[in-house]
Design a protein that fits this description.
The protein is mainly α. The chain has one domain (about 1-100). Helix content is about 80%, strand content about 0%. The chain is built from four helices and no strands. It has helices spanning about 1-20, 30-50, 55-80, 85-100. Helix 1 (about 1-20) packs across helix 3 and helix 3 (about 55-80) packs antiparallel against helix 4 (about 85-100). InterPro entries: EmrE-like, Small_drug/metabolite_transptr, Small_multidrug_res.
Length: about 100
């Protein structure tokens, strides 16, 4: 169950990162509220997951999901650049996440 909480926390990190971008520096109310609610929920789920997942593993997986998710959202919804170097960098993050998730706890 802890891994499910951790994945949900990572997905919420994507939500709050995107909403923060849409908030235009917290000048737009609705995206600002979404950002804050998603942040609180993401941190809470991360804390719950860390009850049984080691800190280093949980934090790296959480930030990795957020980083890769935000990278994909930026490309798909915000027309951010897709360059070979960015793709290689994202691929390396994914490889690190997979290796870390396969280690014994």
């Amino acid at each position: 169950m802890s891994w499910i909480y951790l994945i949900l926390a990572g997905l919420l990190e994507i939500v709050w990162a995107f909403s923060m971008k849409q908030s235009a520096g917290f000048t737009r109310l609705t995206p600002s509220i979404i950002t804050l609610v998603a942040m609180i929920a993401s941190f809470w789920l991360l804390a719950v997951a860390m009850r049984s997942i080691p800190l280093g593993t949980a934090y790296v997986i959480w930030t990795g999901i957020g980083a890769i998710g935000a990278f994909i959202v930026g490309i798909v919804f915000l027309s951010e650049a897709v360059t070979p170097m960015r793709l290689v960098a994202a691929g390396m993050i994914v490889c690190g996440l997979l290796l870390l998730s396969l280690t014994k706890q």
